[in-house]
Amino acid sequence: MPPDAAAPSRPAVSFEFFPPADEVGEHALVTTAERLARFAPAFLSVTFGADGSTRERTRGAVRRLRAATRVAVAPHLTCVGAPREAVDALAREYWDAGIRHLVALRGDGAAGDDRYAPAPGGYAYAVDLVAGLKRIADFEISVAGYPETHPEAGTPAADLDCLKAKVEAGASRVIAQFVFEPETFLRFRDRCEAAGIRVPIVPGVLPITRFAQLERFAARCGATLPGWLRRRFAGLEEDEATRRLVAAAVATEFVTRLEREGIAHFHFYTLNRAELTVAICHALGLAPEARADASAPSASVAGRA
Ligand SMILES: Cc1cc2nc3c(=O)[nH]c(=O)nc-3n(C[C@H](O)[C@H](O)[C@H](O)COP(=O)(O)OP(=O)(O)OC[C@H]3O[C@@H](n4cnc5c(N)ncnc54)[C@H](O)[C@@H]3O)c2cc1C
């Protein structure tokens, strides 16, 4: 049966942004979010600077996104560089402003600082932050998961135990680090299921804008870049138009394969750019016009009625 024949339900999507550093970036953030809002995302999220440095900018971006789109916004919060009181105060401020969903993370040290150390008087790990936030208010909490295992974890099993502890502390969704092999994500989902982690495991989708930039990201978080992916982008460094076509094809193959496996929510790392994410949402049939079209009877069926 063709996929639209029974007007099937469409997957949910959410979009991640980073807080811009200047006015040009702020404009790009708002226009990107406005373009993406038409896909009726479940939420938008805003990252917190790697060393906890963007507290004010994250707050500002959250405010702007809420005003521009009226979509629920989930700020990221990390344990890094602040005592518990400061993290708690920010969480209370968010709650008082009507924010009900947070993405709770440990965070990393500043660039060049490869060993993580908890801040004096701070939350040590994401699990501690989740428990602390739940004591403040009944936030909906998403946490990070690692299909290829977090680089500092002793073993994959220990990493999964850590993920389970975050869910037991109150997280209700896992957003996965990006991967490019659908099977890698599916194995992770199955391992979570087998470990008794009973919350949605949402794949993180990273549309590729520049391969060199992707290599840096991947090296930092220990993500594998498969040989077939390198081959597809080889020689396209100076050919942006073709690169975008290839990137849209790669991400579309990834999401459609996972959709066939029953994945019902995709989280996009937008890097504050709309174009590729818009293309992939169209491929998922998420345009409002496509939804209306799917729920209307086809001409031949209507003719027979
Ligand atoms: C969806 C997503 C969004 C992100 N957003 C941001 C962001 O906005 N800002 C940012 O700075 N970073 C962000 N990150 C990166 C994240 O902060 C790093 O990957 C960080 O190294 C780990 O964060 P975590 O919350 O997974 O940590 P944790 O869940 O605390 O795990 C970190 C490591 O410690 C181990 N561990 C956990 N608990 C214990 C314990 N009690 N004892 C010993 N070891 C333990 C785990 O196995 C793991 O190896 C994001 C990552 C993802 C996947």
Overall morphology: globular
Structural class: alpha/beta
Oligomer: single chain
Number of DSSP helical runs: 12
| Helix content range | 40-55%
Radius of gyration: 20 Å
The separation of the N and C termini measures: 20 Å
Strand and helix map with partners:
Blueprint: E1 12-17, H1 23-37, E2 43-46, H2 55-69, E3 73-78, H3 84-96, E4 101-105, H4 126-136, E5 140-145, H5 156-168, E6 173-176, H6 182-194, E7 201-202, E8 204-205, H7 211-221, H8 227-233, H9 240-260, E9 265-269, H10 275-283, H11 288-295, H12 299-304
Parallel strand pairs: 1-2, 1-9, 2-3, 3-4, 4-5, 5-6, 6-7, 8-9
Helix pairs in contact: 1-2, 4-5, 9-10
Bound molecules: flavin-adenine dinucleotide.
Residues 47-48, 50, 76, 78, 105-108, 125-127, 144, 150, 152-153, 158-159, 162, 166, 175, 177, 204, 221 line the site of flavin-adenine dinucleotide.
Task: Write up what this structure looks like.
The chain is of the alpha/beta class and 305 residues long. The chain has a single domain, classed as Alpha-Beta Barrel (TIM Barrel), CATH 3.20.20. The protein has 12 helices and 9 strands. It has helices at residues 23-37, 55-69, 84-96, 126-136, 156-168, 182-194, 211-221, 227-233, 240-260, 275-283, 288-295, 299-304, and strands spanning 12-17, 43-46, 73-78, 101-105, 140-145, 173-176, 201-202, 204-205, 265-269. Helix 4 links the parallel strand 4 (101-105) and strand 5. The longest helix has 21 residues, at 240-260. The chain is globular. The two termini are 20 Å apart. The structure holds flavin-adenine dinucleotide (FAD). Residues 47-48, 50, 76, 78, 105-108, 125-127, 144, 150, 152-153, 158-159, 162, 166, 175, 177, 204, 221 line the site of flavin-adenine dinucleotide.
